[in-house]
Design a protein that fits this description.
- The structure is a homodimer of 357-residue chains.
- With 357 residues, the first copy, chain A, is of the alpha/beta class.
- Chain A is 48% helix and 14% strand.
- Chain A has helices at 17-30, 42-49, 53-57, 74-80, 85-94, 107-118, 154-172, 193-205, 234-259, 263-271, 273-283, 309-324, 327-338, 340-343, 351-356; strands at residues 6-9, 36-40, 59-63, 100-103, 128-133, 141-144, 178-182, 212-217, 229-231, 291-294, 299-302.
- Chain A has an eleven-stranded mixed beta sheet with strand order 3-2-1-4-11-10-5-6-9-7-8, with helices on both faces.
- In chain A, strand 5 and strand 6 form a beta hairpin.
- The first copy, chain A, is globular.
- Chain A starts with 5 loop residues before the first strand and ends with a helix.
- Residues 340-357 of chain A have low confidence and may be disordered.
- The interface between A and B is large, with 61 and 61 residues.
Chain lengths: 357, 357
């Protein structure tokens, strides 16, 4: 089966065309079935392709003049989307010209344009941003939402759990991913009403959903490797993700200071370099690049603005895996399985949705 | 000037009497002006004191039969408080028999008993739990609230900022601590309404309050050393703190694995031990033990349940510093300075308080 094309917003990311094209070329070298739609300034894309004949041979270029900048507010980005590399890359997914889009541009703009262009899947109220984080265990852990929705109700959290579990099945191969809600304690009474309500719904429905749900987890256990999916609202998830990233960098900086504090330490560092390289490999955000907007009619992957070519290649690989494994269809199937009486939220839990409807 | 006595809940903490007494003795060896009221089972306290004649000479024992357990819910703890070591240690502060209390027991219970016994200071709606975290800069950073209040309004956040700044002045000596609200971006439009409202109030009042306020910070910048006080609601603060702690442990575990992966790495480890010891020192939670409940009529410090004697000694040292520097009076003075028209929240920001009043 041939893999659908991946649309690359070639103008996104802090360093733009060069890094995006190099990343795509690197991904292409690893998997020669990958095909691309490169969206952006044709002259600059062609120049960047000169060093990458294999990528050139498996790509088509879609020229655009405009670029969404890091400063564009989501509302501005929506107005300008049509003529930009980001807007056209997402539109290509809608039109079926590509199976998925990857962008290193402005997250808020990417979210807004993706939502408006692709719309949320039937049964999903809001899309969520999900990423893989390293753990001490055998698998990465998936955390969502990482910032797409500042405030979430219990129904959103239940939907995030379903989407996260589907992603985890693809990423880890586990038949019943271990799903937990992020809270400030594991007792049933802890946290907000939204969390307690979502836990009650998931407890009742987990068996039906091919997930193992056992209530709450705390933020110090995200990376321990005993949980596969950590579900939270976008505010908390964004704070938790950044706290993890910041602390990993903090510890690496402390270690660097330590190792350069004396000649003895410097020598020790050189000898133990394989050990610290292992650490560096685990902590390099490029090795976990590629956050996915789940819950849309199509796949959109956010590559970190500061990702290098290896990072972009990782984001492309994540995208390809989601495409190959039909994650969107899987989420639909799970939503259908939850269907009927189970899916109706218990009375009193539906407040926000009813008002909206 | 003689320092008021510090009441020690000798029965709290995972290992109970022995560790609490050893910690107090260690603190006493470092600062011989410290005096203690040791609250708990007299027989066991006396036995633990046998190895610590200096501590015995500067302590009085207050016998109690009861102990608050880790499983006691706050409501149960409140009912049982009177006959317990935790309850009597806090009562001693209220009665003026001690200047402050330190406990390693159940946080929820400590919070509930402290609030009911000591009441919040005039001008403070809710107390907050604050702790010092290590940074790459010259000073530790203070983060609050760490879990005392699951949901907070803008007025709570403004009060936390004032209390955190007062603590920072004591802990770091900075005349105008750099205060920030924890958010998911630094733009004015980011985050919840509560955060935006609190930022507007602090922006207007910062000069009057001897703090440098410059809006929002993100969770990856908590430990960078360019902020002195990070203000947040108790849910987010608890998640951020645990994410920081968990990641530091995660990285240390990865490093340990790396160093034991080969003979070469093991040798490198031995040679570079001064470097890794520096890291260990920075990351050992015992070196940052002692979270403070701010905003009460009296000082209550929570020592981590799993702290060792050095950790307890640190919590005692934190307590003594807060006592010596009259942090409670300082917060009162700041609240008074904010007073008058500045302190009235702009219209529309006072919702919750007006309803409560």
């Amino acid at each position: 089966m041939s893999l659908p094309r991946i649309a690359i917003d070639a103008m996104g990311g802090d360093e733009g065309v060069r890094v995006m094209i190099e990343g795509a070329a690197l991904a292409r070298r690893r998997h020669d079935r990958f095909k691309f739609l490169l969206v952006g300034d044709e002259v600059r894309i062609k120049a960047a392709l000169e060093n990458h004949p294999n990528l050139r041979a498996s790509s088509e270029i879609l020229h655009t003049d405009g670029v969404i900048s890091g400063e564009d507010k989501p509302s501005q980005a929506l107005r300008r989307a049509k003529g930009t590399s980001m807007g056209r890359a997402i539109e290509a997914v809608k039109l079926g010209h590509a199976g998925a889009a990857v962008s290193g541009g402005n997250t808020g703009a990417l979210m807004a344009i993706s939502k408006l262009t692709l719309r949320t899947m039937p049964g999903i109220d809001r899309p969520a941003l999900a990423a893989l984080l390293p753990t001490l265990g055998d698998n990465d852990v998936i955390m969502l939402d990482l910032g797409a929705n500042t405030e979430c109700d219990s129904r959103n959290l239940v939907q995030f759990a379903i989407m996260g579990a589907a992603y985890s099945r693809v990423a880890t191969g586990r038949a019943e991913p271990r799903v937990r809600l992020l809270n400030i304690g594991t007792e049933e009474t802890k946290g907000t009403e939204e969390l307690r309500d979502a836990a009650a719904v998931l407890k009742g429905a987990a068996e039906n959903l091919a997930m193992s749900f056992d209530g709450f987890t705390e933020a110090d256990k995200i990376c321990r490797g005993d949980v596969d999916v950590v579900v939270t609202d976008g505010f908390t998830g964004n704070v938790a993700l950044k706290a993890v990233e910041g602390t990993a960098r903090f510890v690496a900086d402390l270690l660097r200071r330590g190792f350069s504090s004396s000649l003895r330490s410097k020598i020790g560092f050189l000898i133990s370099k394989p050990a610290t390289d292992l650490l560096k490999h685990h902590l390099d955000p490029n090795n976990h690049n590629g956050a996915v907007f789940l819950g849309l009619n199509g796949i959109v992957v956010k590559s970190h603005g500061s990702a290098n070519a290896a990072g972009v290649a990782n984001a492309v690989a994540v995208t390809a895996r989601l495409l190959e494994e039909n994650v969107t269809e899987r989420i639909s199937a799970d939503l259908a399985r939850l269907g009927g009486s189970t899916w109706r939220m218990p009375k009193g839990l539906t407040g926000v949705q009813e008002e909206r409807a």
